[in-house]
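re the bet — no i am not wrong, look at it urself. input seq straight from the record:
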Amino acid sequence: MNKTQLICLTLLCVLLSSSAQIALKRGVSSGPVQALLKSDGAAPAFILHAAFAPLVILGLALYAASTLLWLLVLAKADVSYAYPFVSLGFVVITLYAHFMMTEPLSALKMGGIALITVGVFCVAKS
């Protein structure tokens, strides 16, 4: 596996993991699951309903796929090279949250995204 393939596989892992987070968030944010949080002592019912929510199941499946591919990445790359790419998940999630979930994107967040991106680029070039 050459360096370009390794980077692509690593980025795929980041995208799968980020997609898993998004699916989990969407799954536990649905109306029926959220309604369970409004009553006292609802934690067990919330966990039970959340565990069987389709988007939560999808999120867990995406995590499993990401983990299996991550094992391949770790087998081929130094962990000090591969692991910084995981921070790109913060970039993906923050941008998704802003554009798809209308969460605010402050100048400070944008600065953090820029720093993360430059840092990962520096690691990839090493």
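see?? The chain has one domain: 3-125. told u. also The chain has a mean pLDDT of 91. so pay up
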